[in-house]
Amino acid sequence: MNSHPILSWTPAAIVFDCDGTLMDTERHWQQARELAMNDVGVAPAEGFAERAKGLHFTECGQLMADEAGRPELGVQLTSGLLHHFRALVAREPQTMRGARELVETAAKFAPLAVASNCPLDVVETCLDHAGLRDHFDHVVVADEDNRPKPHPDVYLTAARLCGAAPGDTLAVEDSACGVEAAVRGGLRVVGVGPWPGEDIAARVDLWVATLDEPGIFEWATRRMAQRLPV
Length: 230
What we know:
It is built from ten helices and six strands, in the order βαααααβαβαβαβαβα.
């Protein structure tokens, strides 16, 4: 891995996705979806968790309603989803393997941002609980000014706020939806998580199983050493 071309590059900024990339919250989202649907007496269809991964929370709520054959429950399911998710994260915040170490090291050589489809208070609460918020210069979420992923808006805004051109910015993502957003924005991408299949893996510069893979941390440590005064 150390010879991979992207590991000889120093980005001008790094933008991280939050859920499933920095924070181990995909399990919380899955549990929250199940609880929200149970509240209204419906059940998720087979394979729903994978289809919902990375979606904006309002799209996820409506997808739950549509797939349950109750489209009129979209708003109620969205509200229940966020309620349960917030409670689960507050009880058990946990970072993904290697995320803390990579963020702490990368913050010493590049401005950092988060780009997420979650509400701002949810993202900042997650990062606060994990003790990571102070490492990030900006947190950008889907809102009236930024369309949700897979649109590239949150990544383009994050790069701009960090003072970097998209092509000089690295995105770190775990979902197909997020990879699509970053690629459409012209960022370089490191994907992380279980092997996503050739189609998605072909769209990123590098795919790793976890952020604590030695090649990634060694890359960050070298970049940090180059920026520190002698």
